[in-house]
């Protein structure tokens, strides 16, 4: 199988990730922070070390500013619902995933005002357009780093700068960039960073997290046991346990730590260089075919490891099913949980696009096979 659906979840992982999960389950699966016996302490050590790896990767001030979540969706919900209140105003973009759009819609029912700034599929959102839409009651600005539909890259450093000047918290959805592109929360003035563990960070599913800048207080998404302040019936407000009620996914966090260690060993620059080369080859190959429309930044513009296309006269779901059944190639057809993005690029009513997303492990031969398969699909439809 040729797997090109890494924007949904990475399929190939380093061997060290599988080994870390297995070791944790067999030897370290105590409940972290809940007891003083050896197995609990071993589990706690796994959590502590992975938290430190996350903090180092994103240049967080302290490891305690990293809150572990089940995925980026949970992290985004914690950030959005934890900071916004009735009467607040939030600015976001027209290219956001439903993990941003749906929580915002829920907050709209609670009296939160939402402004969606138009975004270019080529250049991303214009930071000046965000600035022009800020109000006195703007409590939050949200932007995806890399679009999960087109690979469009937003200038989060510039957006972060203008938010910092206005004293407005800035939340970044790093679902398609964490582990694949450089993210420095301090240099980029990012106050809240939501990231999945199972995509470019190469960890298992069921892992992710939220960076919370020191001084920002969120309403917890859930209450319960934290292993601290157990004498009180009120949820503790200490970081990070105040937002981590319940038993953490220790085997998953162990695998996440191994994935981040692999990334640190290879270097973000090397990973991005290889993924940039892969996406350029895919775009060039698709653009060379008749009846194929490509959505996203053209050659020469920054692009994440995601691109979309359609074949004239064929539905995206049909193309994806055909590539899987006839050629053993895994891509994703449809709306990719991002109707706003498809509304922006004009593909909402036609059922979306076929999305292709390589990663660090994608080989040149696999890309060549994919382009040949698409060409055969196009020719067969003539």
Span from first to last CA? 26 Å
The overall pLDDT, averaged over residues, is 95
Number of helices: 11
Low confidence ranges: none
Q: What is the alpha-carbon Rg in Å? A: 21 Å
- Enumerate the strands of the largest sheet in spatial order, edge to edge or round the barrel: 2-10-9-8-7-3-4
Q: Kindly report the name of the CATH homologous superfamily of the largest domain.
A: Type I PLP-dependent aspartate aminotransferase-like (Major domain)
Structural class: alpha/beta
By CATH reckoning, the class of the largest domain would read Alpha Beta
Main beta sheet, described? 7 strands, mixed
Helix content: 25-40%
Taken in chain order, the helices and strands follow as EHHEHEHEEEHEHEEEHHEEHEEHEH
How large a portion of the residues is in β-strands, by DSSP E?
Answer: 15-25%
Record field, number of beta strands? 15
Cα shape: globular
* CATH architecture heading of the largest domain: 3-Layer(aba) Sandwich
CATH-derived topology of the largest domain: Aspartate Aminotransferase, domain 2
Total of domains: 2
